[in-house]
Amino acid sequence: MSLLSVRDLTVKFAMRDNTVTALNQISFDLGKGERLGIVGESGAGKSITGFSLMNLISKPGFIDNGKILFEGQDIVQMSDADLRTIRGNRMAMIFQDPMVTLNPVLTIGQQMVETLQAHRDLTRQDAEKIAVMKLREVYIPSPEDRLNQYPHELSGGMRQRIIIAIALLLDPQLIIADEPTTALDVTIQADIMELLLELCQSNNVGLILITHDLGVVSQMTERTLVMYAGRIIEAGRTREIINDPQHPYTQGLINALPQQTLPGHRLKQIPGNMPSLANVPPGCPFSPRCDYAVDLCRTTLPKIVSYGQVEVACHEVERLHADDAAQEQSA
Amino acid sequence: MKDMAPEQPLLELRNLEKRFELDRGFLETIKFRGGKVIREKREVHAVNNVTLGVERGEALCVVGESGCGKSTVARLVAGLLTPSGGEIHYDGARIDTLSRKAMLPLRKKMQMIFQNPYASLNPRMTIQQALEEPVRHHNPSLSRSAVRDKVADVMRSVGVDPSWSKRYPHEFSGGQRQRIAIARALTVDPEFIIADEPISALDVSIQAQVLNLMLEAKEQRGLTYLFITHDLSVVQHFGTRVVVLYLGSICELADTATLFSNPKHPYTRALLSAVPQLNDDKPNHIRLKGEIPTPINLPQGCPFQSRCAYANERCRVEQPRPLQQSGGGMVACHAVEEDRID
Amino acid sequence: MSSLTTNSEPSRWARMMSSNMAYSFRRNPVAMVSMAVFLLIAVAAVFSPLIAPFNPYDPANIDIMNSELPPAWVAGSDPQFALGTDDQGRDLWSTILYGTRLSLIIGLCAVAVQAFLGISIGLISGYVGGRVDSVLMRLADIQLSFSTLMVAIIFLAVTQAMFGSEVFNQYAVFMLIAVIGIAEWPQYARTVRATVLAEKKKEYVDSARVLGFGPLRIMVRHILPNSLSPIFVISTVQVANAIISEASLSFLGLGMPPSQPSLGSLISSGFDYIFSGSWWITAIPGVVLVVLVLVINLLGDWMRDVLNPKLYKG
After folding, report:
1. How far apart are CA A226 and CA A157, in angstroms?
2. Domain residue limits at A114
3. Interface test with C, best of B27, B122, B206 (most C CBs within 10 A)
């Protein structure tokens, strides 16, 4: 049985005059200890996916349809009391901004002990012992002293390490990390990512990494979902998707990176913008920006189907593939 | 620099310094320490002794992590901040001491593009108003229709339909706003553009659009850029030369190709190795000890010593000076000078 | 750029109606009722010469024999005077209409004076900063440490004593506007300064500076239009406050003379007769004053809720 299994998840937001579909029939599975990347640009729905997995969607948003089976239990149907036993305990979340996640008026120790005591029947001394152990696991120097410090006394990288330590406190089965290093510098980002990878591997913890950075996904995850305008448009093993993307959007996203072009030359850009969720074009949502779009794309939504090593939602994937092959031959 | 560049650089920074006072009022300077009341002023050393030149027609990239002073350099050059020391020369003339009125003719030549397209356009002005304002201000004699034509031209050149000019900034997406912000800078026909992280607030597919636009403008108008960024892949693509800053001091200055193929300074090496690559599975970066110290009351010696694997006694007492390298660049590192690396 | 080509311009009116403000107004019954009541009072006051059956300023219209007649629903009334008459025999309905007009004019003009002074000082203080800021804000602190009424009472009492009540009564409207206007500018100055400090850090201000615009242009063209929301909010509260201040001063005999009564002086003049049974001379203008101030404050509350982005997002 897989650790997490999401089926036809649809999330809507009730706006002033209408409802907006932010997530449209998302389905995917995550095995125990598997690391999954969710990639997309802002507005693609990747953060909403993360929040809805924890059933943390707040008004005006709501889960309209679908199932989220975590260890066989449906999170969508669960009572608040049952949810609390899962959140932070079996499933933990790491957010983008480490300054906002930690409570500024409590010491690190208080926050860690509080989390532990909320889920386990522990004395204060025992809880502190566990806290120190977890801080050591994330390579925080002199962890005993850190317990008495306040978040503002620590640097951004240190704070994000502590957040990871808090996420790991109760030995969760799954960590959802929403852009965990976007607010950090490159050198610190590399450290944090390496740490997260190491911890997930050594503890056999599942990871869902939400990011816009294809480089990070490539280094961290085994499988990847690419999202566009609230839908999954391509899914498969990370290596396959990075090396041989099938959907024109994924191709565009990878080709638009400066590394993919000779210095000083024009980058291969995708024209236009991501549609706003209130105004998604009919048919394939990517069709107005797509070079390969035909009439069918503008009217009919493509289903996500297996193609080669990956699953992809594109009508023209075969033609695209033939084109690529021809290009490679001529080159 | 002089023997290297046959003609005078367009922009020259000489021993540029910027310090920000942390304790501004008299009461804030009074501290209670060790049973005694003392008076102490803390300062942030944002930019320390930076000397560099920007040649005509090049795109000089300034890279570094947050707090390294790269944005401060941009703001000093743009005249938004006054230096605490040193000089800024533009086209042979000193500009950091000029009054606002005396700067006015220079404003036409030197423009700036900002990081956040959501904040750099006045939300209460239509695009038309925002673009016409600088044209009118700098060319009071132009007729109404000439101003309008000029604005429409610039809008077309950045790929924004002039028929949208009656709209307000909030009706545009981030990428379109950044195009409009670029258009605004181009309305006065500048020759030099300071770009402070112009694409870091944008999505990947939009970043490519804006970078292409800036490259086009460079070719068509012969622009010179001072490009501030933290994204090394953009530097590699866009820059002709690169300056690496750490805690307000220059670590290394080199041609882009040289820097990426053969980085010399230990910090540059760590920085390059930390960029997540698409095509290798194993992260294989050089781990740095600790984190960036705060730039308040800097210690003596090399600013990078606390995290450097090669630091020795000399690094702790003597600040390294940028030294000319055989490849044409400059490196400020005792270990490189003494050949202790590799 | 394909998405940029279609779509025609929505009209200004359509844009206004689809704005957040119009939307929340239509969803808020309190705001709608308050607005309706305020408009009713304002229109009645503006057109008082057309609506009122008598002109209370014209002595020829007044007959002392008609004094202290009760309102129409009380025994002993005269059908000519729907709300009865005051101690001088003026029709109370007409006098209230004229009085409301005076109160509104004084309130609005005083707030205009406050706003002009406060916004200018706040803009300069916030934008220039440094010494100028310190000096101006200390001035504001000093001004705030005197209560408005105290300043106004001293000033009005002194001028009344100096020029005599004849001259004073003639210029009472201007005196009240000036004194209420000057006494309350720090409210505006502080609010504007705080907004300017926040706006000044935004990149569009830097962008304007890099384009070489002068400080005056940046303040007026760029920063001020973006600081309007809080100005609107405090303006409503200030209008209500100014109307109350005016009423209080008139009640104390330092405002409008009995020959040109505002709501305050009307209440005051009726106060002497309240124990002789003529409660209506005080009570009816009092109710009008309370309702007027209440609806303005309710509108201000609504506006604060809409324009405060923090509340709006939550």
Report:
1. 28
2. 106-163
3. B122
Shortest distance, CA A87 to any CA of chain B (angstroms): 30
Top pLDDT among B251 and B205 is at: B251
Amino acid, res. C231: I
Chain C residues touching A16 at Cβ < 8 A? 23
The token duo for A233 is 């448009």
- The answer to whether residues C93 and C80 touch, using CB atoms and an 8 Å cutoff, is no
Which chain A positions have a beta carbon within 8 Å of C23's beta carbon?
A: 16
Nearest residue of C to residue A272 by CA position?
C1
pLDDT of residue B338: 87
CB-based contact C9 B122, cutoff 8 Å? no
A273 lies within 8 A of chain C by CB:
yes
CA end-to-end distance (rounded Å), chain C = 34
C-alpha span between A185 and A200 (Å, rounded): 22
> Is A135's pLDDT higher than 70?
yes
List CB contacts of C171: < 8 A, sequence separation 6 or more.
none
Alpha-carbon torsion angle C232, C213, B185, B199, nearest 10: -50
What Rg do the C-alpha atoms of chain B give, in angstroms? 22
User: In this model, does residue C306 exceed pLDDT 50?
Assistant: yes
Give the model confidence (pLDDT) of A71-111 as tens digits: 888 999 988 888 888 888 889 999 887 777 888 899 999 99
Q: Is A311 exposed, middle or buried (0-12, 13-18, 19+ CB in 10 A)?
A: buried
Q: Are B159 and C1 in contact (CB under 8 A)?
A: yes
CB contact under 8 A, B119 and C1: no
Contacts of C1 in chain A (CB under 8 A): 271-272
- Expressed in angstroms, the distance from the first to the final Cα of chain B is 27
Give the orientation angle of helix C228-251 with respect to helix C185-200, to 10 degrees.
170
CB A204 within 8 A of CB A34: no
* Pairwise CB contact (< 8 Å): B80 & C206: yes
B184 touches chain C (CB under 8 A): yes
Q: How far apart are the first and last CA of chain A?
A: 46
Closest CA to B325 of B271, B261, B266, B258: B258
Using the 3D structure, point to which of A163, A191, A208 is the last residue of a domain.
Answer: A163
C56-91 pLDDT, tens per residue? 777 777 777 777 777 777 777 777 777 877 777 788
Count CB neighbours of A150 within 10 A. Answer: 15
Whether A271 contacts chain C with CB within 8 A: yes
Number of folded domains in chain A?
Answer: 2
C interface test, pick of B124, B196, B212 with most C CB neighbours within 10 Å: B124
CATH 3.40.50.300 residue ranges for chain B: 54-83+99-239
Helix C228-251 with C172-183: angle, nearest 10 deg:
130
Q: Is the Cβ–Cβ distance between C44 and C104 less than 8 Å?
A: no
Quick one: CA dihedral B312, B317, B321, B323, positive or negative? Answer: negative
Nearest residue in A to C27, CA atom: A16
Contact assessment for residue B288 and residue A199, using Cβ atoms and an 8 Å cutoff? no
Cβ pair B205:A270 closer than 8 A: yes
The CATH code of domain B54-83+99-239 reads 3.40.50.300
Q: Token pair 């050393």 is at which residue?
A: B45
**Which chains form contacts with chain B, at 3 or more CB pairs under 8 Å?**
A, C
Higher model confidence: residue B41 or residue B316? B316
Domains of chain C: 29-54+75-313 (1.10.3720.10)
Taking CA atoms, C252 is separated from A258, B187, B268, C179, C247, in Å, by 77, 62, 78, 15, 9
Distance CA A238, CA A217 (A): 8
b/e map C74-99, b = 16+ CB within 10 Å: eeebeeebebbbbbbbbbbbbbbbbb
